[in-house]
Amino acid sequence: MSPDRVLAPQQPTDGSKLKGPASYFPSIEKTYGKPIQEWLDLVSAQLADNTHMQVVSTLKADHGLGHGHANAIVAYVKAARG
């Protein structure tokens, strides 16, 4: 596993819901049919050479994600990296 890899959050077991950008993840998986980890890995690789908005634009243009979903994935990866 790459040291820069950002792992998907675990669903809370106490009945609460994910918060922040991660709150979009169940909808993203349902809408686009891929596990969130695939999206996180894709974004992690793209952020090495691109800005936040460039990666959002790529997700929208190349993968058909809506702006909110694309932005949530990129924001989550950036926040996890610190």
List strands and helices in order, with pairings.
Layout: H1 25-32, H2 36-46, H3 52-63, H4 67-81
Task: Give an account of the 3D structure.
The protein is an all-alpha fold and 82 residues long. It has one domain (22-81). The chain has 4 helices and no strands. Helix 2 (36-46) packs across helix 4 (67-81) and helix 3 (52-63) packs across helix 4. The radius of gyration is 12 Å and the shape is globular.
Distance between the termini: 18 Å
Radius of gyration: 12 Å
- Work out the helix count: 4
Oligomeric state, counting identical vs distinct chains: single chain
Q: Largest beta sheet, briefly? A: none
Strand percentage lies at under 5%
**Which regions contain 5 or more consecutive residues with pLDDT less than 50?**
none
Helix content: 55-70%
Identify the overall geometry: globular
What series of H and E elements makes up the topology? Answer: HHHH
Query: How many structurally independent domains?
Result: 1
Helix vs. strand class: mainly alpha
Q: Mean pLDDT score, rounded?
A: 94
Quickly list its features.
single chain; 82 residues; mainly alpha; 4 helices
Quick recap:
By secondary structure, the protein is mainly alpha-helical.
